[in-house]
Design a protein that fits this description.
Helix content is 44%, strand content 22%. The strands form two sheets. A four-stranded antiparallel sheet has the order 1-2-3-4. A four-stranded mixed sheet has the order 5-7-8-6. It is of the alpha+beta class and 172 residues long.
Length: 172
């Protein structure tokens, strides 16, 4: 029998995209750029409109490109990649609890990937004793789905650790 191959497809994938209202603001900033350069002529007006709109669009797109994924036994949040074995039990935070963990309960050592326009979140304690980070705080529109994916990845990681040990006596 062949060992089961790990699926590279993420079990959870969320992009924290900016809300539609922000794109209206991008359009208005483009118009503002055109109005500022209006006294300089038509070409300058078009250039100002395009330049201001493009800069604002890049800023909003970049801010809204943060991703949270659970893939190959790891939690990937932004630039961080944390093995699920180094994480404790995830906790779903409702709007009020998420606000509390963003403000007065927040620890400055925590890893936080938060977006103000996403009300709910997940908080996961870091259990690795070598890591000074106390917990990971992630804004999520689907916190229950993220928790389920983390639990599934933890279960798969546990099975993967047990599987080689179970196969060794068979080979001997």
């Amino acid at each position: 029998m062949q060992p089961s191959a790990h699926s590279p497809a993420p079990s959870f994938d969320e992009r924290l995209t900016a809300p539609r209202s922000w794109w209206v603001i991008v359009a208005l900033l483009g118009v503002s750029g055109g109005l500022i350069t209006f006294p300089l002529g038509t070409v300058a007006t078009l250039g100002g409109l395009i330049a201001a709109g493009a800069l604002a669009a890049v800023a909003v797109s970049s801010y809204g490109s943060a991703r949270i994924r659970v893939v190959a036994g790891s939690l990937v949040a932004g630039d961080a990649r944390i093995p699920v074995s180094a994480l404790g039990t995830p906790e779903v935070l409702d709007v009020e609890e998420a606000r509390a963990w963003r403000t007065h309960k927040a620890d400055p050592r925590a890893f936080m990937l938060m977006r103000s326009y996403v009300g709910t979140a997940v908080r996961i304690e870091v259990t690795d004793p070598a890591d000074p980070t106390p917990y990971v705080y992630l804004s999520s529109r689907d916190p229950e789905g993220l928790v389920a994916a983390l639990e599934a990845a933890r279960g798969e990681a546990g099975e993967a650790e047990e599987a080689p040990g179970a196969q060794e006596p068979q080979e001997a």
